[in-house]
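Standup notes
- DV: blocked on the single-chain target, sequence here:
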Amino acid sequence: MIRDPATGHRYATIAEPHVGTSFVLGVDTAYVDRSEVLSSARGFRLTDARNRVRAGVNWQGAKGGSLFYGLTWLDKEFKAQRESQIVGSVRLKLKF
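- DV (later): unblocked, structure below
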């Protein structure tokens, strides 16, 4: 399992022969000291923390195909950001 850096969702990189549906739910917070992308030299005032809440559903079929859909709530990253964001993510794997 690896973690997507933007959404925080974890997903498998090596296929397992399991069939069925699973649900995921996660919350994390991180202390923010500085950012290479949102630098103070460019006028950004960062928030002290980065918060994320995510939920998703994963389905894996008997023939190796799978589908994942998740939603992630992203808190404000800097002071002037007007509102938080909700991001959707989809991962579709087909074997043929």
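- Follow-up: The longest strand covers residues 20-31.
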